[in-house]
Amino acid sequence: MNGAIDVRALGKVAVLMGGRSAEREVSLMSGQGVLAALRRRGVDAHPFDPAERDLCELKRAGFARAFIALHGRWGEDGTVQGLLELLGIPYTGSGVQACAVAIDKTLTKRLWQAEGLPTPAWRRVASVAEAEAALEALGAPMIVKPAREGSTIGLTKVMARGQCADAYRLAARHDPEVLCEQFIAGPEVTCAVLGHGAAAQALPLIRIVAPGGQYDYHAKYFSDATRYLVPSGLPPEQEAAIQALVLRAYRALGCRGWARADVMIDEASGQPYLLELNTAPGMTSHSLVPMAAQAAGLDYDTLCLRLLADAALDLAPAQEP
């Protein structure tokens, strides 16, 4: 794959990192990793923080491509993608529509349900009373989280009615749309996908074993106690079935480039349930896509270069008359 990529043809590259979302800190770590990897491969890559510079400078500064290492809002929600479309600068990852849908967990669940894909039962709520009603309907434990955030920010595992008020208020501080979701007890796995359409490929599954079973923000990015098992240890036929499910979920949202889906496996039935799909996954030292790629024989630098080479636009730039 490396030999087929003409690094000079990639032009001047902006690595978008930082930004204004709640995941700014992680985005900076991802971006610095990507920047260093691309430079090691000879790419003319430069850091670009949209929180500090106007994105319209990208065109004026002669950037030919953008590697999106932004996470959360204003990064993987379709907004930056839309501006890059207007500027005519190809970018990594999914397009405007896929990003806008994937960042919204309720919209994603509706689409997956329409496609017959399994996802935990859920309710969208707008008050403490509605969260309490959701607990009655879904049962305990119940997950309460913002509908349009990532990295488990604002998430609470509710065990009893008395916890609903604090859980709702925490989630609502991050997003006025709050999602209550049935808790699935069992192994947690994640599956990364590279590519587009029929050519998209699922990478090996990673099974996540977090301290106390709580895979929160700290466990994701800073804890050395969290264990990541790859190979996952699942039976080969079960792993293949989950990979096939994630590919269907990826294609249903119209994703391209790359993404990572989080899946819970019901310990009683063995049924996998799709939780969410990240269209700009982390690229830090603790991140899972590089780990899965390594298991598939794709080192970090090669992964970054491949993602950059696949940068695209939803629509080709209009031709001058």
TrEMBL record:
GO terms for molecular function: ATP binding; D-alanine-D-alanine ligase activity; metal ion binding. The keyword Manganese applies. GO terms for biological process: cell wall organization; peptidoglycan biosynthetic process; regulation of cell shape. Binds 2 magnesium or manganese ions per subunit. Keywords: ATP-binding, Cell shape, Cell wall biogenesis/degradation, Cytoplasm, Ligase, Magnesium, Manganese, Metal-binding, Nucleotide-binding, Peptidoglycan synthesis. The keyword Manganese applies. One of its GO terms (cellular component) is cytosol. It is found in: Cytoplasm. The active site is at residues 23, 151, 287. Residues 109-309 form the ATP-grasp domain. Its cofactor is Mg(2+); Mn(2+). PANTHER family: D-ALANINE--D-ALANINE LIGASE, D-ALANINE--D-ALANINE LIGASE B. This is D-alanine--D-alanine ligase.
